[in-house]
From TrEMBL:
It holds the Pfam family TetR_N. It comes from Mesorhizobium caraganae. SUPFAM superfamilies: Homeodomain-like. This is TetR/AcrR family transcriptional regulator. It comes from the Bacteria. Keywords: DNA-binding, Transcription, Transcription regulation. Gene3D superfamilies: Tetracycline Repressor, domain 2. Residues 39-58 bind DNA. Residues 16-76 form the HTH tetR-type domain.
Length: 196
């Protein structure tokens, strides 16, 4: 029996590319105009689609923004899976988050965080993005270490994302005095010092 995944068909690839294009156009519009001032029509026009087509991909502006967060979470999970399973789980999680911050998507992630912070509508939902990261780390660790207790991997995921969230908030409060990766490393070092 062949368990290899089927190659992506033309229709699926076109749908994925259109979805990515809409999410990118939305994020750019949110950065230029602010989340609350951006309209669905502006996003659709920037993505080169009709308003009607927009609704085949997304139900709302919120979904457009959170699609970006889902993409970042995919990068985190892939980074977890690329690590050797022998290291400490917290170090694997830290390295996956550092990989995201160091990638070209790190700037997009920070832009998304800025949009969420500046919008009254989204401020209360900021934790949703962090939940995406938590789930990505947990799923990746479960695949990487199928024999380890799920509760301990869930705990590592929770704590890792809490440290990451603190790093991002400190980075923003201190007006980026150093690169975000430095804040992430500091947060994880403090965490490891406290749990020894």
């Amino acid at each position: 029996m062949n368990d290899a995944p089927k190659p992506e068909g033309l229709r699926e690839r076109k749908r994925r590319e259109t979805s990515r294009r809409i999410a990118e156009a939305g994020l750019n519009a949110f950065l230029a105009n602010g989340y609350d001032a951006t309209t669905l029509d502006e996003i659709a026009a920037a993505a080169g689609i009709s308003r009607r087509t927009f609704f085949h991909y997304f139900k709302s502006k919120d979904e457009v923004l959170f699609a970006s967060l889902g993409n970042f979470a995919s990068v985190v999970k892939a980074s977890v899976l690329a690590e050797p399973p022998t290291g400490m789980a917290i170090d694997i999680a830290r390295d996956a988050l550092l990989n995201l911050v160091g990638s070209f998507q790190g700037a997009e992630m920070m832009a998304t965080a800025k949009v969420m912070r500046e919008s009254k509508t989204l401020r209360s939902r900021r934790h949703t993005g962090y939940l995406h990261f938590e789930q990505a780390i947990f799923d990746g660790l479960c695949e990487l270490r199928p024999d380890q207790a799920r509760n301990s991997l869930r705990l590592v995921s929770l704590v890792a994302v809490a440290a990451f969230r603190l790093a991002v908030e400190t980075f923003q409060q201190q007006s980026a005095r150093q690169p975000l990766a430095g804040y992430v490393r500091d947060a994880f070092e403090k965490l490891k010092t406290e749990i020894r």
